[in-house]
Design brief:
141 residues, single chain, mainly alpha
């Protein structure tokens, strides 16, 4: 996965939302991780729209399988929490991924558009890893 597209302008990333989640309760952090994983899966699981990219589809399948597994395991944790009202971060992250889908459609699922999506997803995964590390270390204390 990936390509060399040096003149690509970056897509917006919800960095402020991640900054808020960094300081949220562990329960909210885990819910956020599940929701974001589900949104990434929904975005990347678009076989019919990946014709323009030359990604190894087996690699994409393995990637999605890992995300499904992680989301499933985290959902088990979320099930232990008391139900709460819909948080503002839920609407914001769903809106962000909806905009990414619209971007892909507008760019007709081109290879460059998919490369931009790959970069944004990579940013999400990096920030999510930090949140997960902090949440597990906080839970152990």
């Amino acid at each position: 996965m990936g390509g060399n597209y040096p003149d690509i302008k970056g897509l917006p990333f919800p960095g402020q939302l991640y900054n808020r989640i960094d300081n949220a309760k562990v329960e909210d952090q885990v819910k956020f991780l599940v929701l974001t994983l589900e949104q990434i899966i929904h975005l990347m699981d678009a076989r019919e729209d990946m014709n323009a990219v030359q990604w190894n589809l087996k690699t994409v399948d393995h990637f999605l399988a890992d995300l499904y597994r992680q989301a499933s395991e985290l959902k088990e944790c979320v099930a232990q929490y008391h139900p709460s009202h819909k948080e503002s971060y839920e609407r914001k992250i769903v809106r962000h991924f909806r905009n990414l889908k619209k971007f892909l459609k507008k760019k007709e699922y081109s290879a460059q558009a998919w490369e931009q999506i790959r970069r944004v997803v990579k940013q999400h995964l990096q920030r999510m890893d930090i949140i997960a590390s902090n949440a597990t270390s906080f839970k152990k204390v």
